[in-house]
């Protein structure tokens, strides 16, 4: 049967190669290589014919239903840029990575679209959907085939429609269709002449719900932004602009305007700046004055000046409602607003009195500022000398006597802080105690008087195993809009038991000896990394790991498991070939590894003799590595290095840093002192920022951080964060990463890790984070 059918008109042509009815030649290849070949069978009983339409998200074929013996239209989900298909193939090929995820999300939405249109049943003014199914790694919607003409083609041929009855015969069914669509809570968002069919029996049908906001589900709300110049409302051009039923009303107004005047309206965004669109009456078109006002009210640039629902537009067109020109409507609103302003003036004094009462008698107190503190010693534990130096510097700055010109709030808190300036004892547990690590120190002193009042929790395996006080009162006193990513804090720290004061960003640091002084180059004995390209801002971690095969990259232990966690099971990585078999040195084994690598590879290493020293010509690390580059070693200080934000699928890895926790076992006065210190570290913009710090979380300090010294070489990170580069914000527990890095640190790395071993370790890590 199929061989006797014409694949274009589906008439029975018999054995003729050229159809005697339409002239289509059998075996004619599709016009695009990725189209399905005519004669392909879908769903066991749909014979694919020629293509009748192609959009950004799908291909529509004319098909023959062998079961019912009728011609149907079949829309195939085929989003351009996310899939591909070889000529003659049926199955759609998916691209990898983020595009595969996008495809799967859009496929879900395509099926929601089918379900949503199907609910209209056999509506005479909406194209009917008969069925939908998944096949060939994609999906299909079976719709009624309409043998008619698009309104777009009709208007191009016809031009202006002089007969108002003809105008109404076309627009009335469109309005009725939109009424049904809106009644289901759907905004079409693509009402335009190329989505309206004028059928042979003079019926008019609306179709293509690809851009519709279908329902409140994630998939239903995810309609792609589709702009039709002249027909799309201005709010459709903006990603976060609120859209409503009035958005479709603008489109209908634009279609009416074109039918009546023969002119397509100018782009709505142009009208926002200078609206010179003349009404049909102003153009000399003979039209009912209320109809003229109705068209222009539907075309109002500001959504609030348009009809707010489709029934209002329908009533105005039928003469049941008085329409208004947007300019007249706006003047009335301004007069009403001025009247309201005049009325409100009489209440101003009363309001000011109430505000005054709120600021004095009724003012909500801030216990961090208003409470008096007693002079008492508190102990703060940190786990390295650099942090101790920094926090002591901060204490000297914010716990000093107030100076003239400071705010009343800061003056008040400084007066109180000065009482305990010399009572805050900062201890580096790694060098000043016998415990060695913060974890060991906390475990050993848990439940004793020696337990600190406040401690740095970045490298503590499970801070909440200790009795900690809530820091919500600190969070409630800050303006989160003045901090980077701080609005997300409650998501990651639901119990408010830790408070971050900084951010760390995983970066790739590479040496560029082309910009180095010859004497320094000779002293350092370094050669440029192949990554030294100053034009780049980001680099994918997968590229860094692949480069490790040339033994060029070194990895910071603090980020090792972060990398492993995010890359485990991702496509494009071959763990069996040793892509995670790092040849670099790790903390505690630095000297041995550095010597071993130099002997084995004949490559020089920069190393200052300390476990946390520099190593390698390139390093994937955070702020600690920058701290060494900006350190006291003259040879290191003068090295020219380039930085990139290391990314996974083009997303930066950002973690909260310099987190502190306060013991609930300490007395209330000690807790208040610690909270004041933490509040000052977070809130005060005049605290000095060192070149060795992680990035300040407060925006004002973040801006000034990049203006001095070696920090200027970090401005790529500032640029990326300023432009809201996509990121993976690492939440609670990321400070535990070094513990898992230790599991992966073997002195003998000759054999490397198997894929299973790495997966097991990462699975453990992920499981414990839950």
UniProtKB/TrEMBL annotation:
This is Serine/threonine protein kinase. InterPro entries: Atg1-like, Kinase-like_dom_sf, Prot_kinase_dom, Protein_kinase_ATP_BS, Tyr_kinase_AS. Keywords: ATP-binding, Kinase, Membrane, Nucleotide-binding, Serine/threonine-protein kinase, Transferase, Transmembrane, Transmembrane helix. ATP binds at residue 75. PROSITE patterns: PROTEIN_KINASE_ATP, PROTEIN_KINASE_DOM, PROTEIN_KINASE_TYR. One of its GO terms (molecular function) is protein serine/threonine kinase activity. It holds the Pfam family Pkinase. CDD domains: STKc_PknB_like. It comes from Jutongia hominis. Residues 46-328 form the Protein kinase domain.
């Amino acid at each position: 049967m199929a061989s006797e059918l014409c694949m274009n008109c589906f008439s029975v042509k018999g054995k003729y190669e050229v159809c005697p009815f339409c002239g289509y030649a059998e075996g004619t290849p599709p016009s695009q290589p990725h189209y399905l070949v005519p004669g392909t069978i879908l769903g066991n009983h749909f014979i694919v014919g020629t293509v009748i339409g192609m959009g950004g998200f799908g291909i529509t074929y004319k098909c023959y239903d062998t079961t019912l013996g009728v011609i149907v239209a079949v829309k195939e989900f085929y989003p351009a840029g996310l899939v591909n298909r070889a000529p003659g193939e049926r199955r759609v090929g998916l691209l990898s990575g983020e595009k595969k995820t996008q495809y799967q999300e859009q496929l879900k939405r395509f099926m929601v679209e089918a379900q949503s249109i199907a609910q209209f049943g056999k509506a005479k003014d909406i194209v009917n959907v008969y069925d939908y199914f998944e096949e060939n790694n994609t999906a299909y919607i079976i719709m009624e085939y309409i043998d008619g003409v698009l309104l777009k083609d009709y208007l191009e041929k016809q031009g202006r429609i002089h007969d108002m009855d003809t105008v109404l015969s076309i627009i009335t069914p469109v309005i009725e269709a939109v009424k049904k669509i809106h009644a289901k809570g759907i905004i079409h968002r693509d009402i335009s002449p190329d989505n309206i069919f004028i059928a042979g029996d003079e019926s008019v049908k609306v179709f293509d719900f690809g851009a519709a906001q279908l329902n409140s589900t994630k998939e239903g709300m995810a309609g792609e932004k589709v702009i039709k110049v002249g027909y799309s409302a201005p709010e459709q051009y903006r990603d976060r602009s609120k859209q409503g039923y009035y958005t479709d009303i603008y489109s209908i107004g634009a279609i009416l305007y074109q039918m009546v005047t023969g002119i397509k309206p100018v782009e709505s965004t142009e009208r926002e700046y200078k609206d010179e669109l003349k009404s049909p009456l102003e153009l000399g078109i003979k039209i009912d004055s209320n109809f003229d006002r109705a068209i222009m009210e539907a075309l109002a640039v500001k959504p609030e000046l348009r009809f707010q629902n489709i029934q209002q537009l329908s009533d105005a067109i039928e003469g049941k409602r008085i329409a208004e020109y947007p300019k007249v409507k706006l003047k009335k609103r301004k007069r009403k607003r001025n009247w309201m302003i005049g009325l409100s003036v009489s209440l101003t004094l009363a309001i000011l009195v109430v505000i005054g009462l709120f600021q004095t008698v009724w003012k909500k107190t801030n216990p961090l500022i208003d409470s008096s503190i007693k002079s008492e010693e508190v102990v703060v534990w940190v786990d390295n000398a650099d942090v101790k130096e920094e926090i002591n510097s901060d204490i000297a700055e914010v716990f000093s006597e107030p100076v003239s010109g400071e705010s009343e709030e800061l003056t008040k808190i400084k007066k109180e802080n000065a009482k305990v300036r010399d009572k805050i004892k900062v201890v580096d547990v790694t060098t000043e105690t016998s415990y060695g690590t913060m974890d060991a120190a906390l475990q050993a002193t848990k439940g004793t008087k020696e337990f600190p009042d406040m401690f740095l929790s970045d490298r503590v395996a499970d801070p909440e195993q200790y009795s900690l006080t809530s820091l919500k009162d600190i969070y409630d006193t800050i303006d989160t809009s003045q901090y980077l990513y701080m609005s997300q804090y409650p998501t990651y720290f639901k119990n408010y038991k830790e408070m971050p004061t900084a951010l760390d960003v995983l970066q790739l640091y590479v040496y560029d000896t082309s910009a180095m002084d010859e004497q320094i180059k000779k002293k350092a004995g370094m050669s440029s990394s192949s990554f030294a390209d100053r034009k780049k801002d980001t680099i994918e971690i997968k590229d860094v790991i692949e480069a490790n095969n040339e033994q060029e990259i070194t990895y910071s232990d603090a980020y090792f498991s972060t990398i492993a966690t995010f890359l485990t099971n991702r496509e494009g990585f071959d763990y069996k070939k040793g892509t995670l078999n790092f040849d670099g040195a790790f903390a505690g084994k630095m000297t041995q590894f550095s010597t071993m690598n130099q002997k084995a590879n004949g490559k020089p290493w920069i190393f200052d003799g300390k476990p946390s020293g520099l190593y390698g010509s390139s390093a994937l690390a955070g702020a600690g590595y920058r701290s060494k580059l900006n350190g006291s070693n003259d040879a290191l200080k003068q090295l020219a290095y380039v930085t990139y934000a290391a990314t996974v699928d083009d997303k930066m890895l950002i973690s909260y840093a310099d987190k502190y926790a306060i013991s609930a076992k300490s007395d209330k006065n000690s807790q208040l002192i610690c909270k004041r210190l933490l509040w000052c570290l977070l809130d005060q913009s005049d605290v000095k920022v060192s070149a060795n710090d992680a990035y300040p979380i407060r925006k004002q300090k973040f801006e000034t951080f990049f203006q001095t010294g070696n920090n200027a070489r970090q401005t790529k990170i500032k640029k990326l964060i300023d432009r809201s580069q996509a990121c993976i914000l690492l939440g609670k527990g990321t400070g535990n990463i070094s513990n898992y890095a230790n599991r992966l640190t073997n002195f003998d790395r000759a054999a490397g890790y198997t894929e299973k071993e790495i997966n097991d370790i990462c699975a453990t890590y992920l499981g414990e984070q839950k």
